[in-house]
Every structure is written in structure tokens, then in C-alpha cells.
């Protein structure tokens, strides 16, 4: 298509004219983005077709990764990088006086996800394709992704996200592969010739139309598929009100639910889940049947993975198709289904475990409900045999109980594998939260510690650091991230240290410029960039960070000679629109920023910055600029975290609790290279059991705590009285569920150590380099290799040039 920059330029200019109907001079940046995006998609298309052919010919097992979220981030830059044509394109554009990065800014950031869970799915797609593994994603084509966050007077305001407004150059609509989904109606049961059959009648039908997006592997010819389903009108009955039918149908794929932990209990959410699952399973079966006739062997050729419980209805849906459509017996269908599906658990917060009221579930999905009932009855019978008379245990493990359908229980019973996302999380699942299931099915439980795509979070986000690493140890680490460890042999090299200092400084300057533009705050690039970016949640304890900054402010006011190493505290976080507490914390951060940044003396040493609308593209500017990574969740509450890994890979030092993957990071680098503090998970869980924690005692006995907690309500902030009362109440009246005050003193101590450590620049930089050198373990390539070998049983496809 184009192999050098002159060919590229010629092609680009021609295409710009034909696509936009304008000459180059008249074209806008968006015209240029559109033209380039289309060229790149075309460039991909032959590889895409070849990959599909290869999968057909190779007859290999494929994995389908079902996830209600894929937090992709912009694709142009990543695709150019993975296709190895970024340099040609960049130079060609430069000749035309166009900057590639400006064009990239025209792409809207597809935010089909809330946070960690959706971003994990996106990193997994990148690793699957790069490792030549036959694996595809299935999700919903939400018309509006996660809301755009605006801050008005310090409060979060949500605006609808509009990623499709200017079209999506990467997608290909496939109307011929549309399938029908049935909701509501009744089930007619028929018993003739000893055969029981089920017919879903009077159903409301919705059409699911797929839009396929290519997933390009790095430096390989593999192009996998991310299939996004769009809800559209199907046939409707004569009595139906067409307008309300249209409204209800389109509502299914209108919005991503902006809540990453709590379950809304909304019927629309349930509809979305079944819509995703039914369309995906139908399409998987259809493509299987094109190549093979014997569905009894499905699990030898197909693995279906459910990312958390949102797609758990994959289990009864596959049962439904095998029994009602394909004529399988229950036992035959169960054998295939339970060997096809595997499940990842992402949380132990009990309020986040999905449970659906039967009275909502049953009328909306009558046949699926019948099947879940049958699964439950057979499962309880098995339990009865194993644990005769143990009613309580059986009641506790049942899939349906007390008018609720428990999606985690369904997922465990119907899957061949259940994994947690970090060692500590998997252990808590086995030994506490899912103990009774672990005792019943010990072989099903395993751990797969999360990872991140180093191609996005290092190669794409931080080209300066990428060049430095390659300069030092060659480029093999790009394909084999574990080879980053070779950097460890160079961390004492003064030249490398100096060059790394320059890279970090450069990235801090880039971020400082953005902060100046967006927030109008001038920050000192010699100060410590201390960063906490992630969803706003009580268990993630942004409040602990805030209280520490308030404490520093108080110290500086009391003692003008009190020395601290200058710091810039940077926050980024969206709060779920209905999460009152989280929104209050956002307001608190802004009130604190106003107080700190406007104090003539305090602002010389500390600044507080809240960066609006935290999302993947902003994250790519933030991680490379960080010196300190805040990973301060209440121990046992953060299943893994992946932000922690992005910081480590970009040479920030972690301040963290012994929670999630922080623990494995510490095991990997050694305790001297990470700043840990606070209660351990065991200590937290013990407190929760014995109820002996009294936050009031810490309030009374620590003057520093009393002062900052009082300041929430005593008029210290220039806000209405009562503005932050609910936050103060959470700490005292509600006894501080997340142990903020319990960990406060320990957090102050460790932060003081951080300030002192930063003063020894060389040692600090070496420690950062050590962190980078060990970060290969946390590449999603490692994670995906483990899923492929230990759960899915899939192997790479060899490209023709590798055979
Ligand atoms: C990585 C990432 C997350 C997850 O961050 P955690 O610190 O692990 O919670 C959330 N949002 C975005 C945009 C990310 O890139």
C-alpha cells in the first residue's frame, strides 16, 4: 500500500481529496484524521482477512472473551505502532507540516468501560493478538461510553460522552451476521414421544447487529476481532406500539452503566447483559457450525471466558441453545457447557457481587430463568449428597435463594475454572469469600495476576523512556518484556541515571504544560509529582491522601521553618454519578486545592491539582510523569490494581498498602524499593470479624487526626457549613469502615520517608530504574500466556512467514 514516506504522502493526499472532497489546503485536522484512519484500516484489512482464513484452516481452539466493558483508549497511535508504520507516517506528515500527535488528538477516546476491569480486557486483546493467539473480544457498542467529567465550582458534572458523533473509522458493520434476541413472553412446554420441548412465545424481539473492530498484534500479521453489538429493531407484532418499541430497543445499547462496583438493580442492565450474552453465544455457535457439525466437541475448539459475572448468563444461554435448538439432553448440554466456560472474579466487596431479584429476572428472561432453576436444583442435590443434612451450607451455596439469583454462584457452578486477579485476592477467595465452593470444587480455583500492555503503557505512552531502555539493553524486551530485567545490570551506570533523570524531567515538563493549560496552575517540575489516579471510591482511600495534605498544610502554617521536600499532589478520578460520598471527596479535593494553592507560603512547597476527566488518553500523559504512585487501598479490598503496574513500568516509586498486586510487586523488587505502610489484609479482616476497631479512639488520641477531621466541619474550608459533614460522619459516626484513621499515622511516617528519600536523587533514580527492570512480570503478555496454557488450552497460530 505504501512502503516509504513519498508513497505515503501521495496516497494520503489523493485519499484526502476523494474522501473529504477538499484539497489539502482546505482540509481540517479532523479530515486528516479521518483520511489517515481509513488508510490504516485498509492497511489492516488484508491481514485481518488472512488471519480469519488461517484460523479456519488451522482448525485450532479459539477463545472468546466476553466483557461488559472494554476500555480501549485511542487506536490510531497504537495501530501505527503495532503495524510498524508509525515512523513512515510521521515523517510523511511532517513533510506536509502536519503533526501526527495533533491528528491523534482528533480521535475520540473510546471509553466503553469504567476503569480497571474494562482496561484489563483491552490490554488482554493487545496481548492475545501479539502472541498470535486466536482470541476475540465481545462487548456492546454503547452509543455513549463513560460520561465526560466537567468540574464546575469544584463539583463533578457529567456530560454524555459522544465517541460516535464523527463516526468510527475502525468498525465494520456486519448486518448479514445479525441475530435475534428474545425478551419477555412465555414458555410453552410440549411433551410428545417421550421428548420434552420448550417454545418461547409472545417474545419481544430485538436485533443484535455486529460491528467488528480489528485488533492488531505488535510486529506480527495476526489481526483478531473485537465484536461490538448494536441493538436495532427486529420484526414487531401488529399490536405493538412502534414508538415505544423503538425507544426500548435502542435504550439497550445507549449507555454504559457508569458504576463499576455497585449493582444498580435496573432491569435495563439485566437486558444489556442478556443482549451481550445471547448475541455472542449465537454468533460463536454459528461460526463453529460453518466449520464443524458436531457440537458435542465444542469445548475442544471453543473457550468462552466471562470477565466478572456480568456475562454469567453465557452458561444458561449455551444450555438453552444446545437443548432447545440443537436437541441435546440436559446431561450432554451440561458436559459441553461446563467445560467451555471459565470465569474471572474481580472483587470481594460483597455489595458488588451481582444478585438479581427473581421477580425482575423471571418475566424478562423466562427460559433462562427456568434453566438456572434446573441448574440450581441439580447442584443442590449434589450438595445434599455430599453434605447430607447440612441445610445451612446448602442454602448459603445455592444459586437461587431468598428471592435472589446469585450470579457469582452460577458462574462458579457452570465454569471449569475460577480465577482471582492477584495472589492475595485468589487466596481470600479460596479461604474466606468462596471457601465452601473451594472445598467442593478445589480443582477449579486458581490465580492469574493481572498485567498491563507494555506496548500501550510504555512504548506508546512513553517513547522517551522506551528509547532509553532500548539504547541500554537492545530491543528484545519489546517482544519479551521479562528481558527488561537486563536493565538491572545497568542501574549503577551514571550515564543511564542521568539520561533517565532527563527523560523523567521531560515528561514532567509535558505534564506541567498540560496542567498550566487546563488548570491554570503553575507547578514546579523539580517538586515530587505525587499521583493518585483511579476511580473515586471509599476503599481506594483518596480521603487518606487528602487528610495527609491537610496535615502538611497545618504543619507548614504552624511552623514556617518546617522543611518538606516540595511536592505536587496530582489527582484524577471520576465518581459514579449516584455515589454521594465519592462526589463529596472530589469537592473536598478542590476546596483543599484552593486553600493550598492560594496560600502564598504553603504554595511554595506544595500544590494540589485535580485533572478533569481522567481517561486512557490523559493517563498516557500522567503515568510517565509520576515520581510517586499512590496505591493506598484498605488492605484486602483492592483485588489487584493495574494502575500500580503502569506507574512501576514508568519509573515511579510506590507508596502502598500490602494489598492486591502491590504485594507481588514488593516480592519481585524487594522491600527496599517500595514504601509500604498500614494494616495488613489479615489485620483488617480480623478487625471486621471481631468489631474491635473504634475510630473515635484514634481521633481522641492523635492531635493531628483531631485537627484535620475537625477542619472538615469547622469552617476551615470556605464552603457552606455542613458541606463535608458526611465525610466527617463516615470517619467518626460510622466508625470509619475503611480504616482511614487507623492507617493515618503510619501513612504520615511513610510519606516523610518518601520526602527524605527523594533528596538523594541518585539513589531515588536507581530505585526507579530497578522498578522498571522488574516490571516485565506485570506485562499482560505474561498474564495471557498463563490464561492460554492453564485455563483456555489454546496455542499460537503460526503465520505463513514463521512456518
Ligand atoms: C489503569 C486504569 C484504571 C485502573 O486503575 P487502578 O489504579 O488499578 O484502579 C482506571 N482507569 C484508567 C483510565 C486506567 O488506565
From TrEMBL:
It comes from the Bacteria. Its cofactor is pyridoxal 5'-phosphate. It holds the Pfam family Phosphorylase. GO terms for molecular function: 1,4-alpha-oligoglucan phosphorylase activity. Allosteric enzyme that catalyzes the rate-limiting step in glycogen catabolism, the phosphorolytic cleavage of glycogen to produce glucose-1-phosphate, and plays a central role in maintaining cellular and organismal glucose homeostasis. Belongs to the glycogen phosphorylase family. This is Alpha-1,4 glucan phosphorylase.
Amino acid at each position: 500500500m505504501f512502503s516509504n514516506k513519498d508513497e505515503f504522502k501521495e496516497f494520503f493526499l489523493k485519499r484526502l481529496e476523494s474522501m473529504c472532497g477538499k484539497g489539502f489546503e482546505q482540509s481540517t485536522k479532523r479530515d486528516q484524521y479521518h483520511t489517515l484512519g481509513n488508510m490504516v484500516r485498509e492497511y489492516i484489512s488484508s491481514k485481518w482477512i488472512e488471519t480469519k482464513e488461517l484460523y479456519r484452516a488451522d482448525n485450532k481452539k479459539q477463545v472468546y472473551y466476553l466483557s461488559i466493558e472494554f476500555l480501549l483508549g485511542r487506536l490510531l497511535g497504537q495501530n501505527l505502532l503495532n503495524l510498524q508504520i508509525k515512523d513512515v507516517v510521521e515523517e510523511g506528515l511532517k513533510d506536509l507540516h502536519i503533526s501526527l500527535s495533533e491528528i491523534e488528538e482528533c480521535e475520540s477516546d473510546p471509553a466503553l468501560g469504567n476503569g480497571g476491569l474494562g482496561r484489563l480486557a483491552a490490554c488482554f486483546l493487545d496481548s492475545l493478538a501479539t502472541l498470535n493467539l486466536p482470541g476475540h473480544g465481545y462487548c456492546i457498542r454503547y452509543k455513549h461510553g463513560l460520561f465526560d467529567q466537567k468540574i464546575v465550582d469544584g463539583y463533578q458534572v457529567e456530560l454524555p460522552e459522544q465517541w460516535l458523533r464523527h463516526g468510527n473509522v475502525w468498525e465494520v458493520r456486519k448486518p448479514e451476521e445479525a441475530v435475534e434476541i428474545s425478551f419477555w413472553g412465555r414458555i410453552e412446554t410440549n411433551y410428545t414421544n417421550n421428548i420434552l420441548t420448550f417454545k418461547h412465545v409472545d417474545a419481544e424481539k430485538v436485533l443484535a447487529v455486529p460491528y467488528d473492530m480489528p485488533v492488531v498484534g505488535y510486529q506480527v500479521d495476526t489481526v483478531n476481532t473485537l465484536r461490538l453489538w448494536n441493538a436495532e429493531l427486529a420484526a414487531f407484532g401488529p399490536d405493538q406500539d412502534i414508538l415505544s418499541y423503538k425507544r426500548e430497543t435502542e435504550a439497550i445499547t445507549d449507555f454504559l452503566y457508569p458504576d463499576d462496583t455497585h449493582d444498580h438493580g435496573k432491569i435495563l442492565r439485566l437486558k444489556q447483559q442478556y443482549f451481550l450474552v445471547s448475541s455472542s453465544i449465537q454468533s460463536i455457535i454459528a461460526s463453529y457450525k460453518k466449520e464443524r457439525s458436531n457440537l458435542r466437541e465444542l469445548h475442544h475448539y471453543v473457550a468462552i471466558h466471562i470477565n466478572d459475572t456480568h456475562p454469567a448468563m453465557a452458561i444458561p444461554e449455551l444450555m438453552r441453545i444446545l437443548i432447545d435448538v440443537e436437541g441435546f439432553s440436559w446431561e450432554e448440554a451440561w458436559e459441553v457447557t461446563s467445560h467451555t466456560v471459565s470465569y474471572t472474579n474481580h472483587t470481594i466487596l460483597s455489595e458488588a457481587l451481582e444478585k438479581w431479584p427473581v421477580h425482575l429476572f423471571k418475566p424478562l428472561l423466562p427460559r433462562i430463568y427456568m434453566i438456572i432453576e434446573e441448574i440450581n436444583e441439580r447442584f443442590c442435590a449434589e450438595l445434599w449428597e455430599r453434605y447430607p443434612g447440612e441445610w445451612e451450607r446448602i442454602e448459603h451455596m445455592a444459586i437461587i435463594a431468598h428471592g435472589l439469583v446469585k450470579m457469582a454462584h452460577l458462574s462458579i457452578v457452570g465454569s471449569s475454572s475460577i480465577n482471582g486477579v492477584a495472589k492475595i485476592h485468589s487466596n481470600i477467595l479460596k479461604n474466606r469469600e468462596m471457601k465452601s465452593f473451594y472445598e467442593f470444587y478445589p480443582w477449579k480455583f486458581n490465580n492469574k495476576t493481572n498485567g498491563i500492555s507494555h506496548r500501550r503503557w510504555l512504548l506508546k505512552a512513553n517513547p522517551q523512556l522506551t528509547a532509553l531502555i532500548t539504547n541500554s539493553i537492545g530491543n528484545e524486551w519489546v517482544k519479551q518484556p521479562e528481558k527488561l530485567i537486563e536493565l538491572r545490570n545497568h542501574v549503577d551506570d551514571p550515564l543511564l541515571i542521568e539520561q533517565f533523570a532527563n527523560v523523567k524531567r521531560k515528561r514532567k515538563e509535558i505534564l506541567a504544560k498540560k496542567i498550566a493549560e487546563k488548570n491554570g496552575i503553575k507547578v514546579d517540575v523539580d517538586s515530587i509529582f505525587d499521583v493518585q489516579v483511579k476511580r473515586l471510591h471509599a476503599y481506594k482511600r483518596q480521603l487518606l491522601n487528602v487528610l495527609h495534605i491537610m496535615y502538611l498544610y497545618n504543619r507548614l502554617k504552624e511552623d514556617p521553618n518546617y522543611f518538606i521536600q516540595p511536592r505536587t499532589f496530582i489527582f484524577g478520578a471520576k465518581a459514579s454519578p449516584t455515589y454521594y460520598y465519592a462526589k463529596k471527596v472530589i469537592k473536598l479535593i478542590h476546596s483543599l486545592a484552593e486553600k493550598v494553592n492560594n496560600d502564598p507560603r504553603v504554595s511554595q512547597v506544595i500544590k494540589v491539582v485535580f485533572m478533569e476527566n481522567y481517561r486512557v488518553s490523559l493517563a498516557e500523559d500522567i503515568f510517565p510523569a509520576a515520581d510517586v504512585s499512590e496505591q493506598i487501598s484498605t488492605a484486602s479490598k483492592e483485588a489487584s490494581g493495574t494502575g500500580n503496574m503502569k506507574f512501576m513500568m514508568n519509573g515511579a516509586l510506590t507508596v502502598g498498602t500490602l494489598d492486591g498486586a502491590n504485594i507481588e510487586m514488593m516480592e519481585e523488587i524487594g522491600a527496599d524499593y517500595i514504601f509500604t505502610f498500614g494494616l495488613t489484609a489479615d489485620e483488617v479482616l480480623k478487625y471486621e470479624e471481631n468489631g474491635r476497631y473504634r475510630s473515635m479512639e484514634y481521633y481522641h488520641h492523635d492531635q493531628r487526626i483531631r485537627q484535620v477531621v475537625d477542619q472538615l466541619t469547622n469552617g476551615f474550608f470556605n464552603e457552606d457549613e455542613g458541606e463535608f459533614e458526611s465525610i466527617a460522619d463516615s470517619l467518626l459516626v460510622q466508625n470509619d469502615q475503611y480504616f482511614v484513621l487507623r492507617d493515618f499515622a503510619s501513612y504520615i511516617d511513610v510519606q516523610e520517608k518518601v520526602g527524605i528519600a527523594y533528596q538523594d536523587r541518585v539513589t531515588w533514580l536507581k530505585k526507579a530504574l530497578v522498578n522498571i527492570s522488574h516490571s516485565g512480570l506485570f506485562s499482560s503478555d505474561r498474564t495471557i500466556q498463563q490464561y492460554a496454557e492453564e485455563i483456555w488450552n489454546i496455542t499460537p497460530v503460526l503465520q505463513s512467514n514463521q512456518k
